[in-house]
Amino acid sequence: MNKIRLIGCEEALNRLFDYLDHELDETRRTEVEQHLKICRSCYSRAEFEKRLKGRLTAVGTEPPSDEFGRRIRALLGGF
Amino acid sequence: MKSDPEDRAFFEQSVVQLLDRLFGAALRLTRNRADAEDLVAEAVAKAWAQFAALRDRNCFRGWLFRILTNTFLSACRRPHTVSIEALAEAEADCEGEAAFSIFERLHQPFLLWWDGGPEQDFLNKVLREDIERALDALPEAFRLVVVLNDLEGFSYQEIADMLGVPVGTVRSRLSRGRSALQKALWEQARDAGLSAPKPESADPRSVEHTEGGSL
């Protein structure tokens, strides 16, 4: 692991979505985490974006109608 | 084709397990239930036809979503599909535009003591249908990456592979898509009278400073 640097708000916010999307390597992730521990404003921003992302993830699941469920089972049954 | 009963059982079980997610994604891609049902059914039928080519069964979910996405994008089923020109136009529209952030509109540092602040209050009031409407209003190229990442949890690399574009393109479309989504949510909320915009001339010093008070 590379040396952990202290980063400022601008750098932390630039990386925020990569961080929330789990797209950062360990060093860069740790740097963001360190900043979020000491900066209340960026921490609040991160919490907001994380919750909004959670709301979006919930929209990604939608039970189909019973009728469509039967249609898919019939389709699968024919394979 | 004579199918192996074990293959068939694996396929059926996997599809049934993923059905709510497949339908959720299809619904946001097509924006109506009838088309979403046809899209899922077509993708499942195509997937079965190609199943023998799937080497690693651990990749089933990504593989099936890739088929779903490609089925959605295939021009023959949708004559009014988004053209490369329309996409370039949508991207150019956002060129140079600063990312829209609900947080920045609402956050008031001197109100941190207030149960998470107005931005958390905003999230508490936003309904699922508000989010669906804001998603449906996104240009297709942006909606696609937001659906695949925020709704379905695929990594930038997985999405890049599905769409055949570089990872950097996924990242920039995602960032623009999220900005447009937040803007749409914000405008819907404003039109519904949900949140009063922060007064332009708000002076933090005029508000009683309560930090360090009894929490």
Automatic annotation (TrEMBL), chain A:
For this entry, the protein name equals Putative zinc-finger domain-containing protein
Q: Where is the Putative zinc-finger domain?
A: 9-42
Q: Which domain of life is it from?
A: Bacteria
Species? Candidatus Muproteobacteria bacterium RBG_16_65_34
UniProtKB/TrEMBL annotation, chain B:
RNA polymerase sigma factor 70 region 4 type domain segment(s) = 129-181
Signal sequence span is none
* Gene3D superfamilies from the UniProt entry: 1.10.1740.10, Winged helix-like DNA-binding domain superfamily/Winged helix DNA-binding domain
Q: Which GO terms describe its biological process?
A: DNA-templated transcription initiation
Q: CDD domains, from UniProt?
A: Sigma70_r4 (cd06171)
**Ligase found in the keyword field:** no
InterPro entries assigned to the protein according to its UniProt record, in alphabetical order = RNA_pol_sigma-70-like, RNA_pol_sigma-70_dom, RNA_pol_sigma70_r2, RNA_pol_sigma70_r4_t2, RNA_pol_sigma_r2, RNA_pol_sigma_r3/r4-like, WH-like_DNA-bd_sf
Organism domain of life: Bacteria
Q: Where is this region: Disordered?
A: 190-215
- Give the compositionally biased regions (Basic and acidic residues): 200-215
Report the protein name in the record: RNA polymerase subunit sigma-24
Similarity section: Belongs to the sigma-70 factor family. ECF subfamily.
Q: Mind telling me which SUPFAM superfamilies this protein's record contains?
A: Sigma2 domain of RNA polymerase sigma factors, Sigma3 and sigma4 domains of RNA polymerase sigma factors
> Locate the RNA polymerase sigma-70 region domain: which residues?
17-78
Give UniProt keywords alphabetically: Sigma factor, Transcription, Transcription regulation
Q: Name one GO molecular function term.
A: DNA binding
